[in-house]
Design goal:
This protein has 176 residues and is α/β, with parallel strands linked by helices. Helix content is 41%, strand content 15%. It folds into two domains: 53 residues; 101 residues, Glutaredoxin (3-Layer(aba) Sandwich). The longest helix is centred in the N-terminal third of the chain and has 29 residues.
Length: 176
């Protein structure tokens, strides 16, 4: 190659390098490319999320992720024990977290009497204030205390009968 061609080639290479550097060093163009890529990624992500929500794959509107919380209408708290519409009903109070809970649960499920039976969980934090060393049965909530399993017959907001021993509770629930 002669000198003229070499200079011409060098000039062409410098011009190409300058254009390439300009293309990649221009902040505005890099920023624009970044915005376009970010937009495409967000669009794909949003489409993915919406497709999964509409197909039912994801249930984001339910806090328990598909598990339904069931409220037992037969479960009471001490504070609502006297607020039932039934004229006469039974309340079986026992510690449902205790090992004996299976015995009392089975006993309650075998009950076939005409009087409605409700449950009161003594292990619940709502009922903690009503746990004591000795059972004290009273229609006055300030005097009511449970020391163990108790069956109460309530008629018109008054406790008419109570059974505190396992034998008494078993006899009442199985014979009625």
């Amino acid at each position: 190659m002669n000198r003229k061609q070499m200079l011409k080639e060098q000039k062409r290479l410098k011009e190409e390098r300058r254009q390439t550097e300009k293309l990649f060093n221009d902040d505005k163009e890099v920023y624009d490319i970044f915005k376009i890529l970010l937009g495409v990624i967000l669009f794909i992500g949003l489409a993915f999320v919406l497709i999964n929500i509409f197909n039912g794959t994801w249930n984001i509107f339910n806090k328990s992720n598909g598990e339904e919380t069931k409220i037992d209408p037969n479960m009471l708290m001490v504070g609502t024990m006297f607020n039932k519409e039934d004229g006469e009903y039974l309340v079986l109070a026992y510690d449902m977290s205790d090992d004996n809970n299976t015995y009392y649960s089975a006993l309650a499920s075998m009950y076939s009497g005409s009087i409605k039976l409700y449950y009161l969980d003594l292990s619940s934090g709502f009922n903690r204030d009503y746990i004591g060393d000795a059972t004290s049965i009273s229609s006055d909530l300030t005097k009511l205390k449970f020391s163990g399993p108790t069956l109460m017959l309530i008629n018109k907001d008054t406790i008419t009968k109570s059974f505190v021993t396992e034998e008494e509770i078993t006899n009442y629930l199985t014979n009625k």
